[in-house]
# Entry
Amino acid sequence: MDDDVEIHGIDPLALEITNEINEELRCKTGTWEHEDLAQVRYKVLRGHRDGIVSCQFCINDTHILTASSDLTCSLWNLHTGDREHKYEDHDTLITECRMSPDDSKFITSSWDKKLRVWDVETGQLVWTGLHGGIVTCCQYSHDGQFIATGSDLDGTIRLWSTKDGQLIKKVKEHHKSTVTSIEFSPNDRRICTTSMDKTTKLWDTEAQTVVVQLEGHINVISCCCFTDDERRLCTGSWDKQLQVWDVSTGMFRSQGPITFSKGHEGSISACKFSPDGTMLVSGSYDQTVVLWDAENCGPKLTLKGHSDWVTDVDFSRDGNWILSSSKDKTVRLWNIEHSDTIPSVMENKRSMGLRIIKCTECSKPFSIAQLDITSDNMLCVFCRLAAERPLPTFDAGLYNDTEPQ
# Structure
């Protein structure tokens, strides 16, 4: 991705600019808008004619896949903002779209009770699957062999073979209400679902039964995501909170989840861990995107600019960019590569009992608990990994009782 200019200390964090662009041209090709001098550099992609419900980095982070309430999906060139493909077949609202691991196909779920599998290059439908009710969510397994879908009619989830569209398993009444999101665990052994019944369930794909049920939110649970190492599971809710569960050790059974709050003023709609698990991003109906310090359990940065509900979020593979979509018909691309140098971010860290120090190896700033500072751990997590030295341990309980600022 291009690195436009050096970041300068200019407020606000992200500045909205307005370009007079022919609306018809926008809808055909899409257009990037940007502000080079904002503290958090960003770009805005306009091209859909209605709200965007889903977005995802794909094809080695060179493209963006989107689905919109204008009944179309689009594949965008990340660098130019051009729409390279427009996919049309839906006659009712699309609820989600997701790219296959090999970037050759993608799937969409819809109000017409259908799961559609598309060929990315040709734009042709490969096969369709039918639910008994609205298909609210869909996701590929990480090995690309399976697709999982959720429905609103009877809380049903279904597991499909990607090869021929065969229905492998139908789990009736999996939830007592609408399934709102569905995700495979990184090793594909479990399927996580969230629901309007305020529960999160982990379904074992081999035993074909629910092995864990999580309860803690007081309103609809709208989204979920795993860390790549599968140690933590995050759930987001209309109660304006994120809850992070230690599903690797089962500590949540006795200690419960770690709650991330004071970040959003509206219902949370989407969440995603960074590839290294150190950050968490969430989108909300309050029109903001919040970047969280996942290790220290507090808000790091609030990104403002959308003028309607934020519907989906994603991280680039290098962890330097955040993607967000909104009902305001736009996709925003935020550069957070140098976010640790922003004064408000540094102040948030200090308020959590952290100190910003400079890595003795790469000279980049990073945060560490005041009590953990010794001459032996003056390296950032990345340099420690490179040097194959043990990572510092953070006592999560140290921060649980502290309200994030």
Notes: The longest strand covers residues 52-58. Residues 160 and 167 are 5 Å apart (CA to CA).
